[in-house]
Amino acid sequence: MEMKSISTMALITTIALITVSYLTSESYAQESQPSASAGMKFIGAGLAFGLAALGAGVAIGGVGAAGLAVISERPDLRSQALVFTALGEAVAIYGIVMAIIILGQA
């Protein structure tokens, strides 16, 4: 039940940030007249990072709980649990790299 509420809060926050960035880019568009895709760049970057972070959180939550259970029974598997946790966290790193690439395009 707790994971669903965290996911809901993350989704609402992501939607709010996308809306604010779109409205902000629209107000700047009236002043400087950039291309029409300038606002969509922010939405794409926000979605790339937001959804990657959400997926990484779900992965780390599941792997972390299982890793702690395994470590309590067999302490020699600590390094394998840490590697699996790092693999889940790499998803968020990929998301931020994609957001930087999207924002860096002309």
Mass-distribution shape: elongated
Stated plainly, the CATH topology is called: Four Helix Bundle (Hemerythrin (Met), subunit A)
Q: Can you give the helix content as a percent range?
A: over 70%
CATH architecture: Up-down Bundle
Strand content: under 5%
Low-confidence stretches: none
Please give the largest β-sheet.
none
Write down how many β-strands occur, each being a DSSP E stretch of 2 or more residues.
Answer: 0
How many distinct folded domains?
A: 1
Distance between the termini: 43 Å
Indicate the radius of gyration in whole angstroms: 18 Å
CATH superfamily: lithium bound rotor ring of v- atpase
Average pLDDT number: 81
How do the helices and strands follow one another from N- to C-terminus?
HHH
Number of helices: 3
Tell me the structural class: mainly alpha
Could you characterize what this model shows?
The protein has 106 residues and is mainly α. It has one domain: lithium bound rotor ring of v- atpase (Four Helix Bundle (Hemerythrin (Met), subunit A)), CATH 1.20.120. 89% of the residues lie in helices and 0% in strands. It contains 3 helices and no strands. The chain is elongated, with a radius of gyration of 18 Å. The model has no long low-confidence stretch (mean pLDDT 81).
Which short descriptors sum up this protein?
106 residues, mainly alpha, Four Helix Bundle (Hemerythrin (Met), subunit A), 89% helix, elongated
Structure, briefly:
The chain has 106 residues and is an all-alpha fold.
